[in-house]
Write a structure and sequence with these properties.
Elements: H1 2-23, H2 29-49, H3 55-78, H4 84-103
Keywords: Cell membrane, Membrane, Transmembrane, Transmembrane helix, Transport
Membrane topology: Multi-pass membrane protein
Subcellular location: Cell membrane
Length: about 110
């Protein structure tokens, strides 16, 4: 159950990272509240996941999910650049996440 929790924690990390952009420096109340809630949920789920997954693995996967999702949504929502190099390096992060899952005990 720890890996699904870690995945959901990563999704909430994406939510708070995107929320940062919408909160405009925490100046907009509703996006700020959503961002803070997503931060808390993300950390709580990460905390539960590390009960069974080594912290180094869990943290790397959590930040990797956040990085990939935030980069993808940056492209979709904020018209960030789409280059072959950028997509290749995002893909490398995905390979790292999947690789850590498969080499970790208890996957």
């Amino acid at each position: 159950m720890s890996w699904p929790l870690l995945f959901v924690a990563g999704l909430f990390e994406i939510a708070w990272a995107i929320g940062l952009a919408y909160s405009e420096g925490f100046s907009k109340p509703l996006p700020t509240v959503g961002t803070v809630i997503a931060m808390v949920v993300s950390l709580l789920l990460l905390g539960q996941a590390v009960e069974d997954i080594p912290i180094g693995t869990a943290y790397a996967v959590w930040t990797g999910i956040g990085a990939v999702g935030t980069a993808a949504l940056g492209i979709v929502l904020f018209d960030e650049a789409v280059t072959t190099a950028r997509l290749v390096f995002i893909g490398i992060i995905v390979v790292g996440i999947v690789g850590l899952h498969f080499v970790s005990a208890g996957h």
